[in-house]
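Hi both,

Apologies for the delay on this - the queue was longer than expected. I finally got the magnesium ion-bound model through. Below you'll find the protein sequence and the ligand SMILES exactly as submitted, and right after that the structure tokens for the full complex including the ligand.
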Amino acid sequence: MVNAWFRIPLGPWIDAATGVLVVNLRGVFRSISDWIGVVLGAVEGVLRGAPFWLVLLVVSLLAWKVAGRGPGLFAGAGLLFIAGIGLWDRAMITLALVLTATLVSMILGIPLGILAARSRTLDAVLRPVLDVMQTMPSFVYLIPALMLFGIGRVPGVIATVVFAMPPAIRLTNLGIRQVPRDVVEAARAFGATPSQLLFGVQLPLALPTIMAGVNQTILLSLSMVVIAAMIGAGGLGGVVLTAIQRVQIGTGFEGGIAIVILAIVLDRITQALARNRRGRNDS
Amino acid sequence: MDSLLRVEQVTKVFGRRSERALKMLAQGFGKDEILRETGATVGVHSASFTVNRGEIFVIMGLSGSGKSTLIRCINRLIEPSAGRVFLGDQDVTAADERALREIRRRRMSMVFQRFALFPHLNVAENVAYGLRVRGVPPSERRRRAMEILERVGLARWADAPIQRLSGGMQQRVGLGRAIVTDPEILLMDEPFSALDPLIRRDMQDELLRLQSDLKKTIVFITHDLDEALKLGDRVAVMKDGVIHQIGAPEEILQEPATDYVAEFVRGVSPQHVLTARHIMQTPGALVKVKDGPRVALREMEAEGLSSAFVVDEAGRLVGLVLADDAVRAISEGRRNLREIAVKDSPRVAPDTLMDDLLPIAAEARYPIAVVDDDGRLLGIIARVHVLSGLVAHRREPADGRKPGEGA
Ligand SMILES: Nc1ncnc2c1ncn2[C@@H]1O[C@H](COP(=O)(O)OP(=O)(O)OP(=O)(O)O)[C@@H](O)[C@H]1O
Ligand SMILES: [Mg+2]
């Protein structure tokens, strides 16, 4: 047997490293977790606090306005259906988790993507890291999230962010790199400062691609819902999880279908945003 | 003459081991050897020239000869490896980032081969871009952009997305964007190469028309000999990063400095490519209508000529007064130059080829007037210049012409 004499103790190393992190950076993790808690609390407060018909109306109108009549009607009917099967509150918990995770992913991912587009070194470092982040089975993230942040919704958001942020970084980077070279050159030739170049030319032109990244981030977040429920994120993921544990096929499908409805609504809205941005932008 | 731009020994080497490459260049190694030895590409080698105020200076060379690199060294979109660039008495190569931005915002602007317009901005916003980075308020930007669009004939399209415009129109926007900041120098990197031949000719004429109004200083790049000769007050011929010759179009054609230039212009006969603009001179005796016959006579006397050109307040050509007629008018007490001027003296457009001038010159009894579309007098051509130009060229073998040249 190979393993008898050749064994790299990678697992124990990571254990040790995480242990060191937990002990020494407790304060840092606390404040990260506090901040995310605040944002999540606010989003959840709005979604769960408002009467269900109001949320339904606002989301449907939004879908109608950005994506058109079909998606608008679908959003209305879909949300009504979720309320009808008694999962409204759970759905709002999940929606809050997804929106918060997406927001955090954008806040971290877009600036990182911008930096990566400017620095070849950062790009070279980031690329394999992002590959690993995305291909690693998502369950694995639960363990450090659990150790560093404990159990509950906030660790759920954090594990989701780690899994869902890569497209935001990647597509921001790509979008900026895709801006035609001669257009960038023209801006410089007319005396644009680096920030005028970024905000006046590169970001507006990269926006459709960045929005496509946001769209992917949202869908990846939704795909983490059930997994995040394993560390207590609750919501629709919790419904599905309980159903698995108790082998309740009906409940499982109710939860699953509600997740799919949320996914479709969010997808249509963000895709339409990405498309519309292809037009014009002024500042 | 009043020089505005001075480029001194500018060299650009691309690649990591450019130090070593620079040393090898100094030792006289060629571009290929340096590439083999160091992996560095010599883009431009020791280019020097001076551009005078109000002049169109053309840099001509085949693909890869280093034209784009050289023009970008002027506004430092490409950082020169060695050499200096002066704009007036300011050393552009020594400017820090802030000063360089200031130069790009106010004193130099650029027109690009592939237009390089901003796809997310409409026509007027594209034109106004240079004002926007300068912090000019939107209403003022709009006003200035509209003025420029009027000038390049695109006012109707102000709010259109640029994607709706044809290539020629897009490059008018590019031209508008470059002049809206009222820079001293326009850098134009093959601005018309991406256009159809017909549109290209229109744009060349448009540029000359604009130039006769604006009197900008222009550095213009092309790989097209006809274009170079048509537009250039002076032309620099480049090959492999080196300038082979700088001279007026006639000089380049008639006295090529190196074999390469000779090869380049071989078979091009001046009268096929040179136009009225190249050989016209400022009129010796020129008077306004309101000046009257006495002033006209005095002008002729001062210049030793027997006729004077008459223009109106807007500079439009009225006609030609002959000394005899002026004398008679004075004795008869008539004052109106408009009445006594000869109106049927020959007039030609500035882009009239020498070929077409010849028959006119042969028939004409008076100097030929060169006028623009609005009838403004740009210059005059003495008959003898056309005829002697022809004689000078007789030295060349007549069978060396390329078919269709200068058509
Ligand atoms: N960024 C760069 N890195 C390396 N080599 C370059 C770079 N830019 C230009 N070169 C090289 O420098 C030389 C001159 O190129 P340049 O683009 O100035 O030529 P050009 O005369 O403008 O040609 P064209 O008519 O094709 O535009 C070429 O050999 C080119 O390969
Ligand atoms: Mg070029």
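Main takeaway for now: The longest strand of chain B covers residues 3-14.

I'll put the files on the shared drive as well.

H.
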